[in-house]
Amino acid sequence: MHRVDPMNLQLFLAVVREGSIKRAAEAEHIAQSALSRRIADFEHALGVTLLTRSPMGVQLTEAGERAYALGRQIYEDLEMFTREVQSLRGEVAGTVRLFANPSSIVGFLPERLQAFRAKYPEVQIALQERSTLEIIRACLDDRADVGVGVAVGEVPRGVESWHFANDPLIVVLPHKHPLSKVRKVRFADVVQHPLVAIQVGGALDTFLKEKAESMQASVNQTVSVMSYEAACRMVEVGLGISIMAASAVSAYAGTKTFVRRPLDEPWKDRELRVYALRKSPRRRAVDALLSALVP
Q1: How far is CA 37 from CA 27, 33, 105, in A?
Q2: Which range (39-48, 85-94, 164-173, 216-225) has the least confidence?
Q3: Can you tell me the distance from the alpha carbon of 209 to that of 187, in angstroms, rounded to the nearest whole number?
């Protein structure tokens, strides 16, 4: 009987969760080739094929479906075992799983986490970038200890939330753009120009499209990118203008080729919140991070 490596189980669960080996490798911070080898070793140890691979991603075999259900329960039990035992050491230590949205990672968390680590050097932060809805779901499923994301209309009953920061939306324009001469920019004027979109289908992109539809306008997205940094570069060379979180602009758009203008709309004020599963007691490390993030 072959011994099953717990790390291989973790990577298998990540591949199923992400739907592809490439995305799982990025999420788990491992080379794609190394992850593929570990999945092959995992299948060899079990003596069955768990995944079918294709250019579109991966699909579970019948054995894979059962392995995923059992493996997820085993991994969650192991995680709980580790956290419970670590909490008995009488010190703030262990690993805290932190899921956060892109703007909080860019604009707020680096300094907060650096100060936290200086105070609690025995705590490791396992940070993953996710959308707000994914963050809340991860907290509800106990896959994340703490989450930071945009405020949503209704939070599931099993999740607590606290104010984290105000992060208003602003307009970023090339220096010589016609709207750069305006002190405050209306959204109706923004949609008259080519836009650089960030994370198409994400929370901000969906929100802006809904606002455009409500005023019977359309958004002319000339370029779509996945990060604030890439969006700033597109704006910098004149491919369009963009609406971004102020925190992200402060981090990336720091050259004289940019002009920042407030978005003159009542819905521009965006709140970031901290999320966590409603549970008591929490591990000391989780409570310490919550205390560091919640003002």
Answers
A1: 17, 6, 31
A2: 85-94
A3: 11
Give me the CATH topology for the region 6-85. Answer: Arc Repressor Mutant, subunit A (1.10.10)
Q: Is the pTM of this model over 0.70?
A: no
What whole-number distance in Å separates Cα of residue 286 and Cα of residue 93? 9
Q: What is the pLDDT of residues 45-95, one digit of tens each?
A: 899 999 998 888 888 999 999 999 998 888 878 877 776 676 666 678 888
Class of domain 92-166+271-293: alpha beta
Q: Which residues pair with 241 in a beta bridge?
A: 195
d(CA 292, CA 278): 18
pLDDT digits (tens, 9 = 90+) for 9-24: 889 999 998 888 998 9
Domain ranges of the chain: 6-85, 92-166+271-293, 169-262
Superfamily in which the 169-262 domain is placed by CATH: Periplasmic binding protein-like II (3.40.190.10)
